[in-house]
């Protein structure tokens, strides 16, 4: 789905940013503007200004700024398309969709209607569960035993699912309604296809459980978590994946905790619903929980939309350490110099609830303040099982820590850690940097997660420095393989390179990844037309380029094709924002003559195809080098080399005529 840029401009012009912001932030008139306490950082004196004439907000304390759409995205955690639809709905506007057939528009409208309908169904069930709790002494006794007050139970909308198999039939007269199954409330058992849909056995998914509604950042119910009252298994049961609920993206308690993030200064990530509810009861309303799954990069990214400090709390046992290790992988790509990420390990016999009840809130707060910083936990994880008194142990740690360090965004923290790692493994920082730049290494942790090549593809890790074939090199782009001294932690092809300067006059030409960024951001529809192999290649690029392409892929899946104006809003504050803006500023400086739009798109598609073929050839050559190095050790290495050579020959035949066209 594409939203025309002209409509976005009209929407921003029509929306009253004072009214929109005022729904969330108390504002007072101060001259020509309105002032209030910034909702994005804790402060006691108002520094958050909203201008009715400029239709713009700006905080003089933390520097955050934007328009009405940007505010909904940042404060309510909406995606760009969702924010546009939400804002348009408030002003009675219909969001048009460019480049979409009537069938596509109908499908999009149907999907939005279905999501709204599913949310309505879940809200109705939640109301019924809350009413059932009043007549469920066993559930009430359980909550009282956990120290949950009626006020906190009401705040989180806690309810009770009766023990009957079809209790929801009294709530939904049409118990056979497909929406009940699609929302995850009802299970339809066809006995492995032996029964027709009309004869299928239907029964409630949640029975005799304390019910915790899971809400999105707008406060809409999108699913449930149910906790048994006894010792039955499973102890916790979540709603299944639905069009409105994905446990890999949602956090329990996020809607309730958003304001507390600002007041307390950090988000506390725990492992269960009761941890969140109990912590809110005990004075820590800034807690959220993952939904029975490991913490993902999407969880971390969502948290950093509301706070700059995150503390992960885990049990001190082996399972807790494993969960923390997975959270580390999800957090590393977001460990910038201005963010704080810590890991709190409680004694094995305690969860946060029991710890606070035994030792008090002040002791727990001190534990949080003294939690293990990400940098220290990363080094502890990397050196686990490595004897640093031996050369072999230090080499093993070097191998373990490399993908973790590489996953971090460039900055002072990352560079300091390079020196610390070098000291631990008894190398100097320059030698360690040279070692990692000149040798293929283990896979990096990406942000957010992207598909990876399997072993059968012949991919062996970061591809080394390989020059493009001279017989068909097109000189219009910067070669990505010339060795350079270390200047700034930008990596490409296994070697550090100097940052690309803004393109002015006869300045340095862009690199191939730069060109790919410019072309794909100018016409996002081209991304969908690329092969799976090219998607993987672009997402695997090091540094800001790979992170940008991975984000672009996720945007297409979540929101469909978007214009550059929409993408620009969506990437505000992300690490690759500066790269994208610099390249697109160059593209915007060269307007397309009227009447030549179709030819321009065709030329851009041809240019993108050529650039990607050159990049793919580099990658195949790197894999060939790895295959040759493995001959003698791997019996299939030579066969893999020949297959790669055949692919490269096919590429050369395609590229040769382009060399003369693009030179």
Structural class: alpha+beta
Which geometry do the CA atoms define?
globular
As a whole number of angstroms, the C-alpha radius of gyration is: 27 Å
Tell me the total number of β-strands.
Answer: 18
Euclidean distance between termini CA atoms: 36 Å
Strand content: 5-15%
Instruction: Assign a percent range to the helix content.
Output: 40-55%
Mean pLDDT: 79
Low-confidence stretches: 443-507, 658-663
Largest sheet: 5 strands, antiparallel
Lateral arrangement of strands in the main beta sheet? 1-2-3-4-5
Task: Give the number of helices.
Answer: 26
Question: How is the quaternary structure best described?
Answer: single chain
Describe what you observe in this structure:
By secondary structure, the protein is α+β, with helices and mostly antiparallel strands. 48% of the residues lie in helices and 11% in strands. It has 26 helices and 18 strands. The strands form 5 sheets. It has a 5-stranded antiparallel β-sheet with strand order 1-2-3-4-5. It has a 5-stranded mixed β-sheet with strand order 13-12-14-15-16. α11 crosses α12, α15 (374-383) packs across α16 and α19 (512-522) crosses α24 (577-588). The longest helix is centred in the last third of the chain and has 34 residues, at 597-630. The radius of gyration is 27 Å and the shape is globular. The two termini are 36 Å apart.
């Amino acid at each position: 789905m594409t939203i025309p840029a002209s409509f976005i401009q009209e929407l921003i012009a029509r929306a009253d940013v004072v009214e929109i912001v005022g729904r969330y932030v108390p504002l007072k008139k101060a001259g020509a503007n309105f002032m209030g306490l910034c909702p994005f950082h804790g402060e006691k004196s108002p520094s958050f200004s909203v201008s009715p004439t400029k239709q713009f907000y700006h905080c003089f304390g933390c520097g955050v700024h934007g328009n009405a759409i940007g505010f909904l995205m940042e404060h309510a955690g909406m995606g760009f398309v969702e924010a546009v639809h939400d804002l348009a709905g408030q002003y009675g506007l219909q969001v048009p969709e460019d480049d979409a057939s009537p069938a596509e528009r109908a499908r999009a409208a149907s999907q939005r209607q279905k999501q709204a309908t599913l949310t309505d169904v879940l809200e109705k069930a939640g109301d019924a569960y809350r009413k059932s709790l009043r007549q469920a002494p066993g559930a009430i006794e359980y909550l009282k035993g956990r120290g949950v007050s009626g006020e906190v139970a009401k705040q989180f909308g806690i309810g009770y699912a009766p023990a009957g198999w079809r209790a929801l039939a009294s709530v939904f007269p049409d118990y056979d309604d497909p929406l009940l199954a699609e929302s995850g409330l009802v299970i339809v058992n066809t006995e492995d296809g032996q029964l027709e849909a009309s004869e299928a056995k239907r029964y409630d998914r949640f029975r005799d459980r304390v019910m915790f509604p899971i809400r999105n950042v707008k406060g809409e119910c999108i699913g449930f978590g149910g906790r048994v009252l006894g010792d039955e298994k499973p102890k916790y049961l979540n709603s299944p994946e639905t069009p409105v609920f994905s446990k890999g993206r949602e956090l329990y308690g996020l809607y309730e905790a958003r304001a507390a993030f600002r007041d307390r200064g950090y988000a506390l990530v725990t492992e269960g619903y009761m941890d969140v509810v109990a912590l809110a009861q005990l004075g820590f309303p800034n807690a959220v929980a993952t939904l029975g799954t490991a913490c993902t990069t999407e969880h971390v990214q969502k948290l950093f939309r509301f706070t700059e400090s995150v503390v992960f709390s885990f049990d001190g046992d082996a399972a807790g350490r494993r969960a923390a290790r997975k959270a580390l992988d999800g957090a590393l790509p977001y460990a910038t110099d201005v963010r704080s990420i810590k890991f709190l390990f409680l004694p094995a016999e305690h969860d946060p609830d029991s710890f606070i009840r035994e030792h008090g809130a002040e002791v727990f707060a001190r534990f949080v303040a003294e939690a293990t910083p990400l940098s220290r936990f990363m080094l502890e994880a990397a050196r686990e099982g490595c004897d640093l008194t031996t050369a072999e142990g230090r080499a093993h740690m070097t191998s373990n820590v490399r993908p973790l360090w590489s996953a971090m965004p460039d900055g002072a923290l990352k560079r300091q850690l390079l020196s610390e790692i070098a000291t631990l493994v008894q190398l100097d920082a320059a030698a360690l940097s040279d070692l990692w730049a000149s040798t293929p290494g283990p896979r990096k942790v990406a942000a957010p997660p992207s598909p990876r090549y399997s072993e059968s593809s012949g991919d062996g890790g970061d591809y080394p420095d390989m020059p493009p074939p001279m017989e068909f090199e097109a000189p219009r782009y910067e070669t990505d393989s010339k060795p350079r001294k270390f200047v700034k932690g930008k990596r490409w092809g296994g070697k550090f390179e100097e940052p690309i300067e803004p393109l002015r006059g006869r300045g340095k030409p862009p690199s191939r990844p730069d060109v790919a960024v410019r072309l794909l951001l100018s016409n996002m529809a081209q991304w969908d037309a690329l092969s799976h192999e090219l998607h993987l290649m672009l997402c695997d690029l090091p540094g800001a380029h790979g992170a940008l392409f991975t984000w672009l892929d996720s945007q297409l899946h979540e929101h469909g094709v978007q214009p550059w104006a929409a993408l620009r809003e969506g990437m505000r504050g992300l690490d690759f924002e500066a790269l994208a803006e610099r390249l697109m500023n160059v593209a915007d400086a060269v307007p397309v003559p009227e009447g030549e739009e179709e030819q321009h798109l065709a030329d851009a598609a041809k240019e993108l195809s050529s650039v990607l073929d050159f990049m793919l050839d580099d990658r195949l050559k790197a894999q060939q080098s790895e295959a040759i190095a493995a001959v003698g050790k791997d019996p299939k290495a030579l066969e893999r080399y020949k297959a790669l050579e055949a692919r490269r020959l096919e590429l050369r035949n395609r590229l040769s005529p382009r060399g003369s066209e693009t030179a």
